Amino acid sequence: MTAGSAQPRKYRVLLGVVTGLGIAALAAVIIALFWRGPEWVDGINPDHLGKNDGPKATVVAGLRTALATCLVGIAALVGLYFTRATYQQNRAKDQEQFALAQKQFELTQEAQQTSRTESQEQFALAQKQFELAQETQRQNRISDEERSELAREGQITERYIKAVTLLADEDEGALTARLAGIYALERIMGDSQKDHETIVKLLAAFIRRHAKITSEYGEPVRDDVQAALTVLAQRPDRPESFVIDLSHTDLRDAELATARLEQTNFAHSKLNGASLTGAHLSKANFWKAQLKEAVADGADFRSAHLLETEMWTLDGTGADFRAAYMRQADLRGANLQDAKFDGADLTEARFIAEDGTRIAIVDTEQLLVATVSQGTLLHPSIKDDPVMAAHIRECDKDFFGPNP
User: Is residue 317 within 8 Å of residue 336, measured between CB atoms?
Assistant: First the structure.
């Protein structure tokens, strides 16, 4: 309790004492008047009233009644005063308790706010430290990755140089070294996408150098050339911005089954007797190439360039020649059973020898979906078929225009 609040309380206590004394004195006066008031006021002595003093008794009774009423009123006022004093005291106490409770609440809130602020500051500091640790870890990881990449690049470069060195060994007895170089390049190509195109071009150049056409009747493909072909045929499937150039190469009896060599340039190359079963050769260039006696069952030649390609006795069972450019292609004696020719251009292609031998295995239904001209050499049973004859006239009309 403060000094400011103690001073009014002192005055209230003093006022209460004075008021109490005043009320007590007033009560004493009323009591005295109650007993001796008639005698003092009217000269009537209540103790000596007889039967014949009725009017005086009435006066005495009225005066006493009035005094009694005053006394009761004073008592009521006193009770009201003390009730009010008690109420004010209790109210003041309640207000003090409320003020104390409010003060404690404010102190508690302030303490909580302080604690919350400290917690937030600690959390922000911890978060900042965590972010710094993460950034440091990220920088360290980047540095580690850069060092690892540099080390990896250095290793790949070293491996590449060794592989090229082995590949360049052209001694007669260095076949094993060249094979080791080829397979080393295959591993590097699988590990490094960045070196993919370089290695593909290098292997293609190796094939062109070591598989040159030297005579009409050459030897089967060399082991190291076959190894390079196999690596190219099974290379990782990645986007390439160039065409593999295997033109003017002698690839007789090469093993290229299921090879993935789309768009490859085989112009003027010899693939006689090669195994092309299921090979992927769409959009490949076979201009004036030789595929005599090659096995190409199920091979994909869609949209391939087969102009003047020699395919004598080719096994093209189930092969796909859709949209292929096959003008003047030589298909004498080829097995073309179940092959697809939808949209293929077979203008002046040969399916039979001029002497009637080497008849290609093909039927009318297969050729009705292709462009067949009057100059296309077909077996008479096919060419004289009314449906095929009408188809040939329609194709020639589209190419040469209607007859005048």
Answer: yes
Tally Cβ neighbours within 10 Å of residue 296: 28
The first and second tokens of residue 125, run together, are 């500091």
For residues 297 and 318, the answer to whether their CB atoms sit within 8 Å is yes
The sign one gets for the Cα dihedral 132, 133, 134, 140 is: positive
**Residue 330 contacts residue 356 (beta carbons within 8 Å):** no
397 shares a domain with 257: yes
Amino acid at 206: F
- Residue 184, pLDDT > 60, answer yes
Query: How many structural domains does the chain have?
Result: 2
Q: What is the DSSP letter of 351?
A: S
Three-state secondary-structure class, residue 371: strand
SS3 of 141, please?
helix
Q: Are 216 and 253 members of one domain?
A: no
The answer to whether residue 86 sits within a structural domain is no
d(CA 251, CA 137): 55
Q: What gap in Å lies between CA 188 and CA 223, rounded to an integer?
A: 21
The neighbour count for residue 326, using CB atoms within 10 Å, is 27
Cα 200 to Cα 20: distance, rounded to the nearest angstrom: 122
Rounded to whole angstroms, how far apart are CA atoms 231 and 225? 10
Instruction: Round to whole Å and give the CA distance between 337 and 313.
Output: 12
- CA distances to 154, 247, 274, 307, 320 from 289, rounded to whole Å, are 42, 9, 12, 9, 18
First CA to last CA distance, the chain: 130
Angle (CA) 76 79 84, round 5°: 125
pLDDT digit string, tens, across residues 303-349: 999 999 999 999 999 999 999 999 999 999 999 999 999 999 999 99
**pTM surpassing 0.85?**
no
Q: Looking at 195, 223, 242, which one is the last position of a domain?
A: 242
Question: Would you say residue 100 lies in a domain?
Answer: no
